[in-house]
Amino acid sequence: MPSVEQNKVKRSGIGLRACDRDRAFEGFTLFAPLGGSGTVYLIDLDGKVVHTWQMPYPPGMYGYLTDSGTFFYNGKTVDNSTRYINGKPGKGGAALEADWNGRVLREVRHPDHHHDGIRLRNGNVLLICLAPLPRDLIPKIQGGLPGTEHNGEMYADYLIEMTTSGQILWEWRTWEHLDPGTDRITAVQDPREEWTHANGLAELPNGDIVLSFRHISTVVIIERKTGKIIWKLGAPPLSGQHAPTPLPNGNLLLFDNGPHRLDHSMPFSRVLEVELATKQIVWKYQERREYEFFSPRRSNAQRLPNGNTLICESDFGRLFEVTPEGELVWEYVNPYFNEGPNGLNNRVFRAYRYGADEIARAKATGGAL
Q1: Residue-level pLDDT at 369
Q2: C-beta separation of 75 from 92 below 8 A
Q3: Cα 310 to chain center, whole Å?
Q4: What are phi and psi of 165, to 5 degrees?
Q5: In CATH, what number does 8-366 get?
Q6: How many CA atoms lie within 13 A of 81 on its CB side?
């Protein structure tokens, strides 16, 4: 055995790394290690595990607490289907709600589900799904590495709204609303097996839907009544972004991953707050030496009640909280490592912080709803 730890993240230190109790938001952080056994962790500000959920679909993507206190989870089903999505890292297949004790209250499954699913305010579930594109569209799609289609096919995303009994009520297809000529694959080196690669969605207060597409570095707002795209932001300034999150002030919070920027020569990540009306960046967090903060895939950010922002730097399992001025007040590195294609990793798809009142509401779901 080598005398020196060979995993760089482990060698740099794991668990709680920093905590300024006077300025950090007092609460509990929820995260699910990618590639793990389906265990979801809730830790306090000291990094101590105070609760876990054991989910039936390991490994999963991520989970969060709903407004009613239930635990919503996007899981990966295991099957022998030859569907293309089963080979993708973001494969899902199941979305469920559980109580505080992990008992499944309701569940929906769909073989095309990937990356994200959310509980809508009407009680239904909205899923991101993947399907083959019509063949006549493939030559029209611009960008990406020529000749890298999947056996001559390309895939793109569609949304479905389902009841908890599995009835599909609404469907929205990217290829009916995006332009293959202008909504191009941003990076010349990206494969052309997928066109859009949706990775996150959210519901606005009026019921409209925010949807993020990594491959075309674009975020859109879909009007639910008509299905029309009524707002769009692309590259630049965005680059492979994730997790669009509506804020109470009407703005949009984004984790802008930045693996291949069109307006900068170097890849780096940042968190952006965008004003919808003007599309202007009104707040951002990035390191002064940009390369010190970077997650090329996954990740999210959450605006906390005290004005701070919780950030998940996914590829290094790093969760940290910053003030509006960008000062770090809390930092934790996921200590749970799992074997992946490139060895051990501690990736976390997303993380969320909850106050004591929200945790109390979640605990109350221990009985049947």
Answers
A1: 33
A2: yes
A3: 14
A4: -90, 0
A5: 2.130.10.10
A6: 14
Token code pair at residue 37 = 């056994």
Of the candidates 209, 243, 244, the residue with the CA atom closest to the CA atom of residue 223: 209
pTM above 0.85, yes or no: yes
Cβ(219)–Cβ(230) under 8 Å? no
Sign of CA dihedral 90, 96, 97, 99: negative
CA distances from 101 to 41, 96, 104 (A): 13, 14, 9
Give yes or no for a cis peptide into 237 (omega within 30° of 0).
yes
Contact between 85 and 111 under an 8 Å Cβ cutoff? The reply is: yes
Compute the distance between CA of residue 14 and CA of residue 11 in angstroms, rounded to an integer.
8
Can you spell out the DSSP letters for 120-175?
-TTS-EEEEEEEEPPGGGGGG--BS-TT-SBTTB-EEEEEEEE-TTS-EEEEEEGG
117 bridge partner residues: 127
- The answer to whether the peptide bond before residue 132 is cis (omega within 30 degrees of 0) is no
Beta bridge partners of 76: 93
Pairing state between β 113-119 and 125-132 = antiparallel
User: Among all chains, which residue has been given the structure tokens 């060698």?
Assistant: 11
Rounded distance between C-alpha atoms, residue 93 and residue 86, angstroms: 9
Please say whether the dihedral angle defined by the alpha carbons of residues 245, 211, 54 and 360, taken in this order, is positive or negative. positive
Contact 258/267 with Cβ under 8 angstroms?
yes
pLDDT per 10-residue tile (average), the chain, 369 residues = 81 94 97 90 98 87 94 86 63 93 95 94 96 95 94 95 96 97 95 95 97 98 97 97 98 97 95 98 96 96 98 97 98 93 90 97 75
The token duo for 331 is: 């930092």
Q: Which two structure tokens, joined as six digits, stand for 162?
A: 């389902």
Residue position matching structure tokens 């693996």: 259
